[in-house]
């Protein structure tokens, strides 16, 4: 019996993998549409280069986070987030929420001490 990998073993995600999984959580898409979603979703902070982007897609497919799917156009590859990819994204969300909460607590303590 094969066990699924622990989602936490993929963390922390790089910015590009995070935004790739987030874009695919919206709906399956081909790489060009994914690049557009990532640029928009990150407010322009993450701008995937085509060469590195395709290698990231390949790695996430190999890791089981993303799956190649049959799209509307047979000339374009379309990708979708896998069940494991969703669990990894949810686990990363919890990790980031914990990090932000810790930062807020620390800053509030710091503000109180400086008054």
Low-confidence parts: none
Q: What's the total number of strands? A: 2
What order do the SSEs take from the amino end to the carboxyl end, as H and E?
HHHEEH
Structural class: mainly alpha
Characterize the main sheet. 2 strands, antiparallel
- Radius of gyration, taken over Cα atoms and rounded to an integer in Å: 17 Å
Q: In percent terms, what proportion of residues is strand? A: 5-15%
Total helical segments? 4
* Overall tally of domains: 1
Molecular shape? globular
Q: CATH homologous superfamily, by name?
A: Winged helix-like DNA-binding domain superfamily/Winged helix DNA-binding domain
How does this model look, in words?
This protein has a two-stranded antiparallel sheet. It has helices at residues 15-26, 31-41, 50-62, 83-114; strands at residues 66-69, 78-81. It has a single domain (12-114), classed as Winged helix-like DNA-binding domain superfamily/Winged helix DNA-binding domain (Arc Repressor Mutant, subunit A, Orthogonal Bundle). It starts with 14 loop residues before the first helix and ends with a helix. By secondary structure, it is mostly helical. The model has no long low-confidence stretch (mean pLDDT 92). It is built from four helices and two strands.
Comma- or semicolon-separated keywords:
single chain, 115 residues, two-stranded antiparallel ribbon, 2 strands, Arc Repressor Mutant, subunit A, 4 helices, mainly alpha
